[in-house]
Amino acid sequence: MAENVILNIYDLVPEQQTAQSTSTDEPQQQQLSGFSRMFVGLLEPLGFGLYHTSIDVGGFRYQFGSTVGISRTSSPVGGGDSADSRLYVPGNGQYRESIILGQTFCDQKEINSIIQNLREKFVGDNYHIAHRNCNHFSETFAAALILGDELVEGTDSNVRLEKFPKWVNRLAKTTSSGMNRDSDMACDVIAEARMALGCDKKVGWGITSSVTKSLSSSDRTKKKELTAKQKEVLAKLRSKSTK
Predict the structure, then answer these.
(1) Residue 73 pLDDT grade (very low, low, confident, very high; cuts 50, 70, 90)
(2) Is the pLDDT of residue 86 over 50?
(3) Cα end-to-end distance, the chain, whole Å
(4) Lesser CB count within 10 Å: N end or C end of the chain?
(5) What's residue 212's pLDDT?
(6) How far apart, in Å, are the Cα atoms of 77 and each of 1, 48, 54, 163, 188?
């Protein structure tokens, strides 16, 4: 069964404004919304903004932050905001919107494997506002979930998650382009999504099961022929299962 992969976006507003709003009788969310519109309104014409993001899939919300690294909480149905899902959201985060990026056929075991592989790169102490932030994690995780077959085939160097909004991380990427990029720090979204799928180990963690399910999806009118590399992965997995 296909699961929606949902991107949740929060505007990051100055913490001083957040503190001031709590000292009045007016609801905090109402005041922050007004300020957020003004703040983002100044930056959006230039194509910039400050945002925190997370990914919802399979009833859980995943996000990346400094110190804690990758965290998981329960998520509201269809995305959105709730007390539990805000547990690891920055205190100055104001919920903006949720976007369905696509669907995945990965089951929870496969999702756990992706997250476990991503923990090798997305360590809390490695958090960097320009090189490796929450938005880098969200895009990488979503790409691994949605673009599995394209990534394991690995022939298109221009593959990307088209529905992931570029403006979410534009400020960090622009800043990063003017800095010295540490090869161990800077996030390569597609390369790390492939790593999360186990492509660097030659035999995937289980991506072939997702490929097989996607081939039988009702929205496909023709059966897609497996590539030579996918057939090789299948053969190796079958060989391992008989031992």
Answers:
(1) very high
(2) yes
(3) 29
(4) C
(5) 39
(6) 16, 29, 14, 20, 30
Q: Which helix (H) or strand (E) holds 133?
A: none
Tokens 């960090």, residue?
A: 172
CA distance 48 to 40: 8
How far is residue 152's CA from residue 138's CA, in Å, rounded to a whole number? 19
Closest among 239, 241, 224, 231 to 208, alpha carbons compared? 231
Residue 15 one-letter amino acid: E
Phi then psi dihedrals of residue 97, to 5 deg: -170, 165
**What is the rounded CA–CA span in Å between residue 26 and residue 17?**
13
| Lookup: tokens for 173 | 């990427």
What is the pTM (predicted TM-score) of this model? 0.72
Query: Which is more confident, 173 or 222?
Result: 173
**Whether 159 contacts 190, CB under 8 Å:** yes
- Is the pLDDT at 1 greater than 60? The verdict is yes
